[in-house]
Amino acid sequence: MSAISDAFTSGVQEIKKSWAWFLVLGILVIALGIMCIGKAQTATTFSILALGWILAISGVLWLINAFRTITVPVFFLYLLNALIRGGVGSLLISHPNAGAEGVTMVLAVLFIVGGIFRITGASVIQFPYWGWTVLSGLVSVGLGVFLLATFATSTTYFIGIVIGVDLIFDGGALVAFGAAIHSLP
What is the Cα–Cα distance from 56 to 41, expressed in whole angstroms? Predict the structure, then answer.
């Protein structure tokens, strides 16, 4: 039992040494969130294009992998995966505004699930100032639910705004965490 306690204490001391990194990262995430809100249309389009390029590139890599395993029974599975990724990626790249609707639905679910995990994790661990992480999770869940409720009227601006608000609260939670571990004895 003391080995576990010693490992935990050692881990806390290692994290405490990097309190400034959490603080700086939190401030940078807040600044990025403010930029996303200020340029919501650009943030939405950039997010859709980035996702499209990631899918297109991964589709090419899966295609290469499929032809490297042409004699293996999973060849057609790899090929199908490559075609779906590449096809969806190229559609998002060529039609980012139309892709925003599909991504809006995925984003709403991501915010809800991610927020629930943050709330649950912070409530179970209860590190110093854990309430800020719970608040961040609650805001994330609220944004996801709101996005689902207003899906029919959501514009391409909303994705950028939601991402920006979520980043601001995540950055605030990181700043609070950095301050909390800095104040540990």
Answer: 22
Spatial separation of the C-alpha atoms in residues 117 and 1, rounded to whole Å: 28
- If 0-12 CB within 10 Å is exposed, 13-18 middle and 19+ buried, where does residue 139 land? buried
The 10s digit of each residue's pLDDT in 102-115 is 878 888 899 999 99
- Specify the pTM: 0.63
Per-position DSSP letters for 75-132, written without gaps between them = HHHHHHHHHHHHHHHHHHHH-HHHHHHHHHHHHHHHHHHHHHHHHHHHHHH--TTHHH
What whole-number distance in Å separates Cα of residue 99 and Cα of residue 51? 10
| Alpha-carbon span 113 to 19, nearest angstrom | 27
Residue 126, by phi and psi: left (phi above 0), alpha (psi -120 to 50) or beta? left
Domain ranges (residues) in the chain: 22-182
> Mean pLDDT, the chain, as a whole number?
88
Q: For residue 141, which amino acid is it?
A: V
Residue from 143, 146, 121, 144 nearest 132 by CA: 121
